[in-house]
Structures are given as structure tokens and as C-alpha cells.
User: Fold these one by one.
Assistant:
Number 1:
Amino acid sequence: MSVGRQVTAEGDPKRLLLTPENVSALGSGLSDAAEPTPHDSPAAPKRRPGRKGKHRPRRVRKAKERSNRAVWSVIPAGHKPARHIIRWLRSIQELAEFQLARKDLKANIWRFANAVAQCPGFDPASMTIMPIWQRLQERFGFPAKSISNYFRRLRDWGVLAVVATGRTAEFTPKSSGRTDNEAAIYVLLEKVDEEGVEKSSVPVPTRAVNNPPHARAGEDSKPQIDAASPHASLKRAAQRREVNHQLLNRTERFWDPNATTNTGTKRERREAERLASLELQFRSFPLQRISTPHVAAICRPFFRAGWTIKDILHAIDWRPNTDARYHHDGANGVENTGAWLKYRLGKWVRPEGAFYRSPSQKRAAEETQRAAQRRAAQARRERELAERIHYVAPAVGWRERVALLQAAQGS
């Protein structure tokens, strides 16, 4: 290039001499190079073909795929890298989605999570792991489609995040010099504790009391720890969280309180019973302490007998066939809410096993009786009207009939 020859020095070709002639020549050369070239020119760069309307994210470089910047850029809000792989497995067990899943799906997800935890390529510094699909298929027997579905579920549940996507050797840049396939990199996540206190299912000591020396010579003076009662099962806790979430986000009633659930197929009846139990928990505060399946299991015989939500609410507060109301509710002093609900509803079961009529059934029977009485009265009135219309007056008047009757009696 002529510009380069003018601006370089004779002794050092890399040195630039800032003379007025060289500066003007350099400016003209840059202006010529900045002019746009036509699209049909051979100097125009060629665009890399790709899919229209879709953007494929670029994979993180191999040297930076486990860096803090790459890891924290994919972590969603409210989450952080798990402190330990065991804590990560326990966090999966505490998820409401995991606890409320089907029994077979729950077992498969748990087996898959343990298989992922055993995969090589784990980095404890960044809490990233590199599971290889071929290893999961050969050693643990997971089909490829199941692996894809399980990874998707774990990402949707917020326990995994993709740091670097997998890539085959065909799409590896030639400049990297690598010809092997690259596995995906995942980071293990757990939710951030808002209160900043570590929570676990182990009983937490509430206080420690040190006995003063020589206070009781015959007893040991070691610290006595008063431990709190153990937490309920993880499934119960997950169910209560799910119930509270649905009740707080309730915009309309889950089920009509005056409607029964005996409609449709067996699956539809089960779903109707679940929604009715959820609406029952919304209307009765003490029932929010237990799970919706627990409430549905206790109330299911009454739902099958044609009871409604309002009938069960009435049976909880009132004794059968009387106007006597219970003196207390289950808001205070009740430890086992399920047993309390079963006891209250059990009063409405006869000794032979049949159910008393619910208030709605009584009202329906009374309305049926009143409707039958109205129909009978209407039929009686129509019959009397028809008799009046078809009545034929006798040819002889009443005076003549009375005279003939007296004459017959006198003779």
C-alpha cells in the first residue's frame, strides 16, 4: 500500500513518522478504506447461514466455562450455588413439586439426581458439574428421552442452570484445535434463605441450661438441652406450602359451595373432590394446617353421599338433628387437626353406618314435599272445577223433591 510506504521510517518499518505529509497521506488512505463496498463485490464478507427467526446462544469458551462470571450470569433471582452436593440433594427433596409428584416420577427423579451427583467433572469451587449422557445411559440405564425430560424438570424447578451448552465436534471452531465433543456444564442451585438462617429437619436446641456447681450433688451438672419437637415430614410441609400458595393467589372460588362432586368419570370426581377440599380449607381456617389430600380423604365418603361444602361446614360446627352448636372450634387447642375433623364429621354417621341427611338434603326433601303438596292441591282444584263444569241440574226443583220425600215418609 502506498500509504504504508510513505508513513513508515527507513530504519524501523514499524515506527510511524508524524510529519505533515505522512498525516495527510494517512488521512486520505483511511477515508478511502472507509468507503462502503457494494454487496456484489468480492470483498464483501459472506454471512454465515443459519436458521431464520432463531438465535442460537454462543457457547462459553472452554477456558471460562467455570468462571464466576459465567456461573453467576445464569443463576436466576432468589437462587445461589449450592454449598454442598448433599445440600443440593436435600433441597430437591424439600421442593413442593417433587413431593407432590406421582410416586413413580418421584422415584425416577430422585434416582436421576443421585446419578447426576455421581457423574465425573464436578468442580466444588464453582459447584458446576459435567454429566455425560452416554454414562447415564450405559451405567444407570436412562433412555435419552428420559434424560432430556429429567434435565428439563430440574431446570424448571430451579435446582439446575445451564452454564455452557453441549457441542459436537462438528460445530467446534477450527481455531480452537479441538476435535472432541464438549459436554454441557450445569451449576447446582439452591434457594436463598430470606432470613439468613440455616433450616433443616433436625430438632434445633432452643436453650441450654448450665446447672450451677454443687446445686445438686447427686445429679450430673452437664448442660441440659431442651430440644424442639421434630418437624413434620417433608411431604406434609410441601403440601402445606402448596395449599398456602393456592389460597393466597385465589381469585375465584375453586368449587361451588352448593354443588356436589358426583359428576363425570372417576378422574373428574377425584379432581372435583380435591377442588372442593381446597375451597373447604379456604372457608375453614383450622383445616389449613393439614394438606388438601388429607382433607379430601376424610370428606370423600360425605362427598360421595351427596354432601356439599356448606353441609360439611355445618357439620363441623353443629351436632346432628339438633340446634346445639359446639362451644369451641379447631382454631385453638387442637394438635391433630385431621383427627378433630374426623371426630366432628363422625357424629353425622348413624350407628349402622348410614349418614344422617345433610342440611341441603333436608331442604331438598322439604322442597320436594312442598312441591308434591302444591301439585296435589292443584289437581284437586282442577278436578272440582271439572265437576262444576259438567254438572247437570235435575228436572224437578228442590221443593217438589222435598214434598215427594215427605209424602213417601208419611205413607
Number 2:
Amino acid sequence: MTPALLHHLILAVADDMIAHADELTELDRAVGDGDHGINMKRGFEAVRADAGSTAEKPLPDALKAIGTQLVMKVGGASGPLYGTLFLALSKEIAPDASNLPTAFAKAVEAVKARGKSQPGQKTMLDVLAPVQTALAEGGGDLSARLPGVAASAADATIPMLATRGRASFLGERSIGHMDPGARSSALIVASVCRALED
């Protein structure tokens, strides 16, 4: 993990999140309070502004810096949840990312604990958990497969009944809409994989 590659990865994720802010906001209007895209854009604009200095850090420290920015800048439930994902990953990941599957599994567990939720409740975990499973299974074509895994998992939230988060207040009306957090999680996975393939 060179500083140049890390810089490329940070910019790829931040630029995609900023570019999809309107889409995420529209998704959140259907099931939440309509601020997911705005909040994620604000958070990743801050991450992008610090990309140069962050990329010079060892990978664990870089992930900690990103997680801290997201906690501070992203409002709503998403800030603490995404912050937890990156901060937990920073504590577990090896500097060369050689233990990514096990580190990511610990990070997903941390998100479950922070959100007091499980896969199947129409949240970002419905993407993170299948991605974790695919990482654990391994294979040489992971960066080619993972975006599809994540996108399919996000699509699978559409028919779900939300039982956690703000969408759960809608009851049956939450059915038929993609979860915004699942979509933003899938976007991050796709951005990282695409940047690694560049």
C-alpha cells in the first residue's frame, strides 16, 4: 500500500460519494429524513481535502483519520456508523492490508454493535455482511466480483421491511425502497475495487 495508491483510493471513494449525493438524498427522502446524500457529501469533502496528508500515513493511521473525519462531519446516524466502520478497521488492519478479511469482519461486528442491528433489517449491514462473506471466501478475482456482490445486496434491500433506523418508523411503507446506507456502502465497495483495478 503505497502513498500514491492510498491517495488514489481516497480520491476515488470521495469523488464517487460526492457525485452520488443527489441520488442518496432521493433514496433517503423515501424512507428517512432526506439528508443522507448531503451528509455523506459533507463528510467525504472533508476526507478529500485531507487526502494528501492522509495518504502519507501508514494504512491503519490513514483509516483512523478518515473515520475521525466521518464521525465529526457526517450528521445523522451515518456519521457514527461509517466512523465506526473505518475506526474499527484501523485498529485491526495490518499496514500491508494482508489481513483484510479478518479485519473487515471485526469492523462489521463493530458496526452491528454500534447500530444494535443485524443483516436483514434494511441497513448498510445488508451490504457489508455479504461483502465480508465474499472477502472471507477469497479468490483472485475479488476486486472484479465484489462490486456485483455489493450492488445485488443493495438491490435486495428494496423488498425488505425496515426494522432498524429511521426507516423503521414507516413500517410497511418502507417496503419497495432501497436503503440509502446500503446504497452508499455499495458505492464505496465499487469505488475501492475500481481504483485497485486502475
Number 3:
Amino acid sequence: MDTHASTFPLIISVDDHTVEPATVWQDRLPEKYRGAGPRIVRAPVKEMTFLGGRFKPVMGAPGDDGPVGDWWVYEDLRRPLTRLDTAVGYDRDEIRLEVITYEQMRPGSYDVPARLADMDVNHVQSALCFPTFPRFCGQTFTEAKDHELGLLCVRAYNDWMVEEWCGPEAHGRLIPLTLIPLWDPELAAEEVRRNAARGVRAVAFSEIPPYLGLPSIHTDDWDPFLAACDETGTVVAMHIGSSSRMPSTSADAPPAVGSTITFANCCFSMVDWLMSGKFEQFPNLKVMYAEGQIGWIPYILERADVVWEENRGWGGVADKVHRPPSELFAEHVYGCFFDDAFGLRNLDAIGLNNVLYETDYPHSDSTWPKSREVGEAQMGHLEPEVVERIVRRNAIELLGLSDDGLWDGTR
């Protein structure tokens, strides 16, 4: 572990990513499903665009001209690995939307020992990792035709996450984040409890489920799932893009537009939750917004309180939201950031206990290998005990880690 000369606390990142090894599902699915289950095929790309918040790749046929990459094939889905999935180690101006193979990515993207080595370089002790091929809340399996196979794929991913990615080789430094079958809240509750029994304290969920064709959280449909999270102390983790619709302004808006306003879905989602009544219905429930940043939060809380105070009579919340939204936020919601100097200058308006740190490895936005330097520059005005809480203590308490910041499946 690299601790040279710095007094900056060892980082616990609540938002990194894993690129799943090619054999995750082929090793774990029943034999009769392996031909239909997710598998890797090497093929050229015919065309690939990312406009208006929509990623549209088209796989070419063997022998076609075009760059060759590794593609996930699953039912009718053809999804390539891209440089944006794993961009660390490349100069920012060299990062393009292009297909790649496993050999062309940094091994820490998919290999546990290599990941730990890259964490050492970056002053990171522990990390919670979101998926890549399943997408950020497992919507790949929700959109599939065969939900019997989809459920097996969800469980196979979770078994790999707990037993291998976060297994003995990780020495407690990788923190499990599991998936649920989003199409069935009862099955989702079962999966939450199955994983909680082996020490998992975080589950991925969609920031805006109706964008996936699923019920909103204003319904009672999700109550079995939310009850399981409430009972087991499982945090509902929502990553930007977990609704499969990144914010944009037009179909021809360049990716830079969406990249600037990525926090918007988190903003909309947080207001949904604060006005849903679910935090009063499930008093132990906690939610976190990965990669949403935090600087926008103070105004939204101010506005939500005004609306609740002045408009709740006709606003549809008087019978279910009985306390100011800002109070509910303080008890139930966590914002996650990796580069937000403005938010750090306004911690008093956000809440010191509601802020978590992240590095976003291995994505193009990642601060790797300088997450410590970025943190030192942006938190230099804060007292050491405040920095300790942001960088470590809040995550330890939220995710049920050991006092020294490690995951122990027996806890």
C-alpha cells in the first residue's frame, strides 16, 4: 500500500467499475443456457455513434473491413467493449469512441491483482464497483426476452461479484455491489436477502425506472424490494445512466452536452424519492447517487422545502411526506463526487455526513492515478477530521465495512 508522505486519508471509492471477464456467465450458467447466455465474440465494427445520449454500435460480419474488437453477444444484443469502458492510462485527447479487445485495456479493468495494484498507485484502499456489460443496474437482463435466463444471469453475476471479484484474492479491498431482477420486485427482494446473508450491503437500482418501462417509485410496486433493503441495511445505489437514458437536449447534441449535464438524472431522481413517501414508509432505507456530484444539491433541497411547505396541499404529497424534504435527505440520501470543488465549498448546505468520495476507475472521467492529488487540492481548506469523514468514514458506516475500511463478508 502506497502511503508516501501524504496525510490524505486512504480513499474508499464508492464508484469504480469492473469490466467483466469473458467467462463470467459461461462458467456459471447451466449448460443448456450457455449458447444463449452472454459470451464474447471478436468481430469488426460496422458503425458506431453516440449522439443525443444514445449509444448505437453495429457489429460487422467476419472478414468485413473495420476496427476489430471484443463484443458481448446475448440474445439479439451486440455490445462491444469500447475505450470509454476503460480509458485510464491514456491521454485525455487520445480517448475516442472506439472498439477494443481485452488485450487493449488496462488489466486492472478485469483482473483482481492488477486492480489492487492500480488502487495502490492511486492511494485507494477499498472500492465498490458497478458493472459494465449488465449496465449500471442490470437493465441488460431486464430488456432480454427470456427472463428465466435473465434471472440466472443476474444470480451468476452476483455469485461472481461476491465469490471472485470480492473473494479472498481481494483481501477485503473490493466491496460487493449486486444486481436484482428488475422485472419482478418479489424476486428482487429474494435476491437482496440472499446476498445480504453473505454480507452484501449495496444493490444497484435505476435512477428513473419508468425510463426502462418499469413502475415509478411513487407506486407500491417496489415495496417488496424496498422492504428487503430496509430490513437488511442494503443501500440502494443509483449510478448516472442507470435509466439507459443519459441527459441530452437533442438527437444531434454532441456527447459533450450530455457529459456536462450528467448530474441531471440524479437531480430528478432525488426529488422523486424525497416526494415519494418511501423514506417515511421505510425508515432505515438509504440511497446513494454514484457519479452525480454534489454541487447542485443545496438549491434542490431549498426548492423542495419551499414546494413542500407552500404547495403540498395541491402538490399530491401532503398525505405521505410529513417532514421537510431536507430533513429526509439528511437521514437517507448520499451524494457521491470525484471532482466538485464548488460542492466542497458548500458542505454546510449539503451535510457532511451525506457526502462520499469516488475515483471512477477505469472510465474516461476517472481521476486515476491522481485521485489523492485532486482530493488534496479540493479539500485543502477543510479540517483533517472533515476530510477523513468524506474520504472514508461515511463509506465505512454506510456500507458496513470494518473500522479499518475493509469488507468482511461475515459482518
